[in-house]
Amino acid sequence: MFATIYLPNFYLQAAMRHQPGLCAKPVALIEEQEKKPVIVQLNEVAEKAGIYKGMTPSQALARSLQVVIKVRARSQEKSIQEILLHYAFTLSPFVEATAPGICTVQFTTWNRHPLARRSLSAKAAADNRLARHGESVLWRTGSQSHDNVLRAIEQLAECEISAQAGIAPTPDTSFLAAHLAEPILQIENAKEFLAPLPIETLAMIGAT
After folding, report:
1. Which of 7, 10, 74, 136 has its CA 20 to 30 A from that of 207?
2. pTM
3. DSSP letters along 14-62, please?
4. Which domain holds residue 35?
5. Same structural domain, 90 and 60
6. Residue 199: is its pLDDT beyond 90?
């Protein structure tokens, strides 16, 4: 099983971090190093004001005089990425820094949360008892992964970092699930999950 932890609007989160007063205001982020800076990320309040990606700051101000234009805070981006990886490594020693604000975790039977680890003989005995009673060992492992990932998301929230996660049999499916999660989406059957998704949704997720 794999988990992808995703920080939506990563660059905007970094620019707004430790500024709770901005949450109720329309906020848009520009890449100031571009020749013609345009909005690359924005919060929900800004979207409701009619602002969208690709607008210039002046166009955004024409939609809302209250809009706050932010530039990227690279030191905060680095700090948030390090915090994300720290909590990802509490889940497993197998962690990939997939992209800014995204990491992928691989779960195995050997890397459960430290509080849940048991000796091999104890694990085998417990699994045999579950099998005799008809309970799925795979389900139990998946449920435990869900709880551990939820704990990591809650710990990130305590650091003023908004996160969501997808858990699935493959890393690609967990990546897609993370973008649709509220805050966690666990997928057991990748084909059943992917089949109803429109191409537009897949393209939108791939562009983030």
Report:
1. 74
2. 0.81
3. HHHTT-GGGTTS-EEEE-TTSSS--EEEE-HHHHHTT--TT--HHHHHH
4. 18-72
5. no
6. no
For residue range 167-185, list pLDDT tens digits in order: 999 999 999 999 999 999 9
CB count in 10 Å sphere of residue 189: 11
59 shares its domain with 137 = no
Residue 13, burial from CB neighbour count under 10 angstroms (0-12, 13-18, 19+): buried
Q: Is 188 helix (H, G, I), strand (E, B) or coil?
A: coil
Strand partners, 105: 3, 95
Residue 104: partners with Cβ closer than 8 Å, 6 or more residues away: 2, 3, 4, 95, 96, 98, 171, 174, 175
pLDDT of 202 reads 73
Tokens 């429109």, residue located = 198
pLDDT band at 141 (very low <50, low <70, confident <90, very high): low
> In CATH, what number is assigned to the domain containing residue 185?
3.30.70.270
Q: Are 96 and 82 in contact (CB under 8 A)?
A: no
Domain boundary among 31, 46, 72: 72
Whole-angstrom Cα distance, residue 133 to residue 168? 26
Q: Quick one: which of 157, 156, 181 has its CA closest to 167? A: 181
Beta bridge partners of 69: 28
Residues in the chain: 208
